[in-house]
Amino acid sequence: MQTITYPSRETWDELLRRPAFETERLFEKVRKIIDRVRTEGDRAVLEYGALFDKAQLDSLLVSEEEIQEADKKVGIDLKAAIYLAQRNIAAFHASQRTEVRKVETIEGVTCWQKAVAIEKVGLYVPGGTAPLFSTVLMLAVPAKIAGCKEIVLCTPPDKEGKIHPAILFAARVAGVSKIFKAGGVQAIAAMAYGTESVPKVYKIFGPGNQYVTAAKQLVSLRDVAIDMPAGPSEVEVLADETADPVFVAADLLSQAEHGADSQSVLITTSATLLDKVVYELERQLSYLPRRAYIEQSLAHSKLILAESMEVALEMTNAYAPEHLIIQTRDYALWGEKVVNAGSVFLGPLSPESAGDYASGTNHTLPTNGYAKAYSGVNLDSFVRKITFQEIGPEGIQGIGPAIEVMAANEQLDAHKNAVTVRLNKVRKS
């Protein structure tokens, strides 16, 4: 990892840049796959599955028999862990429900807002180097709580045409409606436009590689909504001299384990801690099985020494990390000053892994600096807010003249007239 001491503010933009790939370069190639799935449906999805996943399939839909078989293959300990995580995720997201509150803005004018679930949602869970059954829970559990009527899951099969048993088990526990053996661009296209097997959905959620990200961006231009822009995963640890270097190193390595394009950043005010973290990184890395991925990730990760906690926090808010771990003496105080982050982990016993799996918060979060403008996935991600208003005689008389003046000044005479005819009738009665 690169070590930087007291960087000047002019260098922050370059220093905090992510190793992000420009997905626009992939648009032409991705668009061809999308267009073919759009016109050929299942046939195209099956052929791309054979090409990219090396899986020869007759059907995309996961059968009930396959789901029952997966149940037998998942160990008792893992089942218990999945149930615990499901309960905590459900508890946290259920707490985000809002009550309908009617407000009388002026006598005779009542306005309110109602949350309505998105009827059909599509969830994408990548294949790759690890079975991300935790992502199934993070997406399907709040969708179920929100009241989505149809929850569709796409995930790539292995070469034998099988889905990892833990993914199928988690999908059943979380309430997924249908599961399909489809990955990559073709899965996103199938959910965006629908095929003979895969239903068309109204919003697509979930992480993925650069091709999946490009596909989500393209289909979102006019055809379907998506959760958020996404890029490689990242973590920042904000630490002072009281932090445990063993914990700090473990957190940086756990993030680097996600993939070669992940990024881990330490910003600290302690040179002594920084040196100890470097030692711990080498020691812990020596016995981790995914060392090859981690070393590639660490090549573009950073260890930064800041002059003060004030400067460190300013740099943190400029970076806007997906995950932020604060290990300082007054971690609650500094946590209150964070304005740009996807999810914050306070204190020495709060590793990012907790949010990834079982604390209850969602691990689908904005990356690549998007935490400055986007929230992570939450209950609101699966609902729409519809506004209502009811206007009585007193209300139309109270606001009608103002509407007439505003409409006239915008030269929208039909708008004015829609109010005028009502005012005339109310005044006569």
Task: Give a quick precis of the structure.
This protein has 429 residues and is α/β, with parallel strands linked by helices. The protein has helices spanning 12-15, 27-40, 42-52, 64-73, 76-94, 133-146, 165-174, 184-193, 210-219, 245-256, 271-285, 291-298, 309-319, 331-336, 352-357, 393-409, 413-428, and strands at 2-5, 103-106, 109-117, 120-124, 150-155, 178-181, 203-205, 225-226, 234-239, 263-268, 302-305, 323-327, 343-346, 383-391.
Topology overview:
Layout: E1 2-5, H1 12-15, H2 27-40, H3 42-52, H4 64-73, H5 76-94, E2 103-106, E3 109-117, E4 120-124, H6 133-146, E5 150-155, H7 165-174, E6 178-181, H8 184-193, E7 203-205, H9 210-219, E8 225-226, E9 234-239, H10 245-256, E10 263-268, H11 271-285, H12 291-298, E11 302-305, H13 309-319, E12 323-327, H14 331-336, E13 343-346, H15 352-357, E14 383-391, H16 393-409, H17 413-428
Parallel strand pairs: 1-11, 4-5, 4-7, 5-6, 7-8, 9-10, 9-12, 10-11, 12-13
Antiparallel strand pairs: 2-3, 3-14
Helix pairs in contact: 2-3, 2-8, 2-9, 3-8, 4-7, 5-6, 5-7, 6-7, 8-9, 10-11, 16-17
